[in-house]
Each structure stands twice: as C-alpha cells, then as structure tokens.
Amino acid sequence: MSSTIPCESEYCNQGWAEVLTSMSPYGFASFGVAFGLGLSIVGAAWGIWLTGSSLVGAAVKAPRIRSKNLISVIFCEATAIYGVIMAIILTNKIKAPETESLYLPQGWDYPGFYYAGYGMFSAGLSVGLTNVASGVSVGLAGSSCAIADAQDASLFVKILIVEIFASALGIFGIIVGIIQSNACTFPIAVA
C-alpha cells in the first residue's frame, strides 16, 4: 500500500516561490513576447469571426453593405498588429550576457535580471489580454454594425463610432505595455 509522502529529495520544488525563481528570466521574457503576440492574434481572429459571420449573413439581405463593412474586419486586424509591435519592442530588449557560462558570475545583478524578466512577462501578458478584449469588443460592435446597416443605412456611422472606441482598448493596452517594459533592461555585465 502506497502512501503520499512529500518529496524529500534535494531536487524537489519547495513551493511556487522556488519554481518562479528557478525559471530563467529569459524564459519569462520570451513567454511575455509569446503571450503578447499570441493572445493579440487570438483576439483579432475572434473579432474577425464575430464580424465576418454577421457581415456575410446580413449581406444576403442587403448586398450593398459588403464593402463598407469591411472596415470592421480591418479594426479587428489592428489588434493583431498591436501585438506584433509589442513583440518587436520586447524582443529588442532581450540581451544575452557578455559571457556565456552555466552559472552567472559573482556580483551579478540578480534583482535587475529577474525584474527585467518579470516585467517583460507582465507587459506581454497585459498587451495580449487587452487585445483579446479589444478584438472581441470590436467584433461584437462590427457584428452589430453589419446587421444594423442591413436594416437602416443611416445607422452605419453611428455604430462605427462605438467600434472606434472599442478599438481604442487595444491602443490603451499597448501604451500600458510600453510603460511597463520601459524600465526592463537585462544586465549584460557584472555590476
């Protein structure tokens, strides 16, 4: 009969603090780039799916709406572009140490090292999650715009204003991400 015994080996993680400090800050920075880019693309795809399905359905009743309602798809695609911009900014901040070794030298700036990794992770994650919200909100507004425009052409501009405000969420997200990542620089030499 086996019983559950906590791991007593020297290779066991003693908690989340040890897990988070055992992972390389370069890994956190790279995950920040990946989440920022990946989630922004998911937000854009989700918004295009919401807008596109309504646009195609409403265009059956009123074929005139097809071309002018493509602006909704373009607004959704902008959220993916915000993620690409943030990924470029974060990738340019990741610098390798001057000397390569298994262990970092004595006197290395560990707090700065981890601050940069965690900061880039949080910047990428905040941009990605903001762009998911922006993509969905632009998609819902674009869907409503297509359906309303099929019923009454005078509603197009009125609902497009709401869609522009929904797209501004992505701009706010990238501004926050840039502010978060401004202080994140990897130390490349011994302090």
From TrEMBL:
GO molecular function annotation: proton-transporting ATPase activity, rotational mechanism
Superkingdom field: Eukaryota
UniProt keywords, alphabetically: Hydrogen ion transport, Ion transport, Membrane, Transmembrane, Transmembrane helix, Transport
Pfam families attached to this UniProt entry: ATP-synt_C
SUPFAM superfamilies, A to Z: F1F0 ATP synthase subunit C
Transmembrane segments: 26-49, 70-92, 112-134, 155-179
Subcellular location: Membrane
Coiled-coil positions: none
Membrane topology: Multi-pass membrane protein
InterPro entries: ATPase_proteolipid_c-like_dom, ATPase_proteolipid_csu, F/V-ATP_Csub_sf
Limits of the V-ATPase proteolipid subunit C-like domain: 31-90, 121-179
GO cellular component: proton-transporting V-type ATPase, V0 domain
Family: Belongs to the V-ATPase proteolipid subunit family.
Listed name of the protein: V-ATPase proteolipid subunit C-like domain-containing protein
Organism per entry: Craspedostauros australis
